[in-house]
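For the sake of transparency, this paper describes our internal protein records without simplification. The tokens are whole numbers drawn from a learned vocabulary of local backbone shapes. One such record is reproduced below, unchanged from the form in which we store it.

. . .
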Amino acid sequence: MSLFKKKAPKYAPPPVPQPPVEDTHTQSNGVDNNNGQKSQLVFHCQQAHGSPLGLISGFSNVKELYQKIAECYDFPPDDILFCTLNTHKVDMKKLLGGQIGLEDFIFAHRKGRPKEIEIVKTEDALGLTITDNGAGYAFIKRIKEGSIVAGIPHIDVGDHIEKLEGENMVGKRHYEVAKILKDIPKGSTFTIRLVEPLKSGFGSIGPKTSGAKSSKKTNYGSGKETLRFKANGQATIENDHDDISKAGIEKINSLLESFMGINDTDLATQMWDLAEGKTNSMQLANAIDDSDLQVFGFTDEFIIELWGVITDARSGRLS
């Protein structure tokens, strides 16, 4: 799936507290922008719990990005639970998904302490919203107030769901994990194994501009163009969505949470994009059936609700 065969040289950062390191041999992504021109893309990165500054490039999808970060800091790629943009905190509103703003700063959250918890399912719904990192790890994005899980102090937002009743969840998509949890009978007792993100060991970390060889990205997080990872493995630079599109995508995401207990901005974006040029719900349903989204098996009720959200957004009733 990779567009780029040549690998960047392995980057070995110095130990803290030496100054940030710039890799002068970093390979560019070389992705095509909308004008057919090659773009030299290099992103700044740090480990969320604290580390020297790294430069990341030469990737065309999320898995390759994790691989590049792992090479930069010399740890296994499967050590990364998820990444956030422009904050080292476990902020689910800042999750890296299928796109990165050209000025975004990447923070990698690594595996921390594992924990096993026994839960009695006293209600039909546990109160969890689940998403995944695009590389095989499903984790908790939201916990509903007053729910079963909200009353368990050891379960937190950002925890990776590693096992359920001894069954390995690594490699499963978020909707698969959500279905397994939903199918657990009411009244049952089950065991969940979680892995929390590594806690921060530094009081203040973030983009470092002083002492760096380049001040090219001092205004990180303000870019209007984004690098989008396509399902077919291609990465392209596109303009950011307008306010109407953003409102529609956000509402679609809420619909996914209501119907399926998952949260996936990239899936919501794909649905919004599939609706382009469609004039009724039947055309949208056919477009979804002809895409890789047909694996979800969306019900007619969901499609009708989805079309209502799209028409509301187009008419400006959501913005």
Notes: Confidence is low (pLDDT under 50) at residues 1-28, 34-39, 202-222.
